[in-house]
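I am still getting used to backbone structure tokens and would like to learn alongside you. To get us started, please write out a protein record for me. Once you have written the record down, we can walk along the chain together.
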Amino acid sequence: MHILAREVLLYNLNNPGWEENRPVKFLSRRSIVYGASGMVATSQSLAAQAGLAVLREGGNAVDAAIATAAALTVVEPCSNGLGGDAFAIIWYKGKLYGINASGRSPRLLDRRTVCAQGYTAMPEFGALPVTVPGIPGMWAALQSRFGSRPLQRLLQGAIAYADGGFPVSPVVSKLWGAAAAKYAKIRSEPGIEEWFRVFTRDGRTPAAGEIFRLPDHARTLEQIARTNSEDFYRGELASRIADHFRKLGGYLREDDLAAFQPEWVRPISTRYRGRDIWELPPNGQGIAALIALNILKPYSFRDRDAARTLHLQWEAMKLAFADAARYVADPDCKPIPVEELLSEEHAAKRRRQIGDAAGVPVLSPDGGSNTVYLCSADRDGNMVSYIQSNYSGFGSGIVVPGLGIAMQNRGACFTLEEGHYNCLAGGKRPYHTIIPGFITQGDEPLGPFGMMGGFMQPQGHVQMVMNMFDFGLDIQQTLDVPRWQWEKDKRFWVEPAYDRQLLDELAHMGHEITVSDAHEKFGRGQIIFRTGHGSYMGATEPRADGAAAAY
């Protein structure tokens, strides 16, 4: 797809003290959406409507988030599903909460078992990288603590889409086809054929606008709704999942599923330009965004599209990823030095390592994923930042027969390096890429923000925060401007709207740059902020099929 860029004068909404307007290039431009009573923003418009319907009948922001998340497992199955994990940050009645619903590896699986099968790194597909799914447990935990509607009501929209069919949207159609091409290469391996039965029609993935049904998925959603997710972990669904993995020679068992419980956690933060930027603690990689922002704090930035700006951002991000690669893992297995990593001393030490030329950090991010992010808000001021994923597209390629559950491959993020923080062990949570974000100012919330896309996510968070609070862009412009992503070593991907002369300057500094119009490389974000006038403003991603739905 060819991206047309045009110059627009910087709209100085968030940074009124900034002295100079500079031309900034945008991708396609969208308008900010405003609403007074409630809002949902996500990457697929049908899912946004499912959440909005719950708000309209009096449900709160948490109810809307659950309804939207459930619908996304149906209408965007190439990015998430019932076999995946989820995280959320919730602002509810004046307090901030965090919840981690990432699952653990099977207790029977460890590093030696995988290495004995000839692997030197965790495989991406098949039964070995499958961890316990956390999404159904997340819905039940959120509903139990904050919800005002039963899960049976909140999943109605998703069930209707799955049973009656839904029109496939353009970006989803593209990602669906790309996933099929990957699975076609391993179709002969155990357990993969069921994916083609469920998610293709005679081997063909759906075109944009084509109606697609997921009847097995609908029946499973109904069972989850009836039992408040209990059956998924300690009932018939759990038994059928475990039985399937026995047949495949996998390691997931009933006791692994029965042991799962989401964990309520305290969000972590750093202050940047007078705002507190909130992430969840490890095993998620949100700390990488906070480390990078800490490194960048002392610098003064006036021009977004300048070689100095991008060079400093890129070097800070690489150093932050090096820290994340070393330390982000399951804190239940080994204490993570979060406080030290977020200290001013650590930021200063890392800052001194930035020179005038491109550097190479200790370790580069590897791999990518498809994910869904949503945010919601209600008339009482409650807001949710929510993200869920199967990791790589539909996940492992394993679909449980008769249930339509595509199982995640999150275990691919483990390392097999003995002694490493993130080394595979039984009953352990891996390094996790999906991260919700939230911003407050003083004791008041501004709102939720986030971006999907594997290792792009902390990079996207840094860019979004700086777009708003360094360069004065409004929330929609923040999503519309071109982005960059670190690939590895000195290599970066950038979108075509960046000026070629600017890229030449960066190349002379030692950066290796590839221009790409592949939208999926650069994440897909959403933002909802309070306006200060008793209403909300929402922004949605131009690189997705999304919508900010409000009333």
Q: What stands out?
A: The radius of gyration is 22 Å. The mean pLDDT is 93. The CA atoms of residues 85 and 134 lie 4 Å apart.
